[in-house]
Amino acid sequence: MKGRQIDMKPTDTLIEEHKIIKIGLSCLERLAGNAVDSGKLDSDMAHKLIDFLKNYADKFHHAKEEAELFPVMKRKPGFKGGCSPVVVLIREHELGRCYIDGMKSHIEEAAAGDEEGRRWFNENAQSYLKLL
Fold first, then answer.
1. What is the pLDDT of residues 4-26, one digit of tens each?
2. How far apart are CA 39 and CA 130, in angstroms?
3. C-beta neighbour count of 49 within 10 angstroms
4. Integer Rg of the chain from CA
5. How far is CA 63 from CA 11, 30, 32, 94, 107, in A?
6. Neighbouring residues of 29: CB distance < 8 A, sequence distance ≥ 6
7. How sure is the predictor about 86, in pLDDT bands with cuts at 50, 70 and 90?
């Protein structure tokens, strides 16, 4: 497509990544729901989703927001200070990491049918879904 100009802003890439993350969140919602309904968590799918959330959503996408987008935002009026939108977003990323770790730490027991493990996996999954 020689000669054709593509008008993309850097934030367009982040928006496209959000769409991919939403697909992963939909899968997480279904996985957690199936675990509640069946009494057992699909550990293979849970590990794959945790890998996606840790590596794509967090280490790739959130890291890009934190390194590239947030510094630009901080230079704008209203985005500075201890309770600025940037600070809130960074805290949300940190909280999301805690929920991912919480899900990961309960996969095996939830997959074995342990009610408490399943409950904690689901609690962390639901909290992560609400956060994002």
1. 556 668 789 999 999 999 999 99
2. 22
3. 24
4. 18
5. 14, 26, 26, 11, 25
6. 125, 129
7. very high
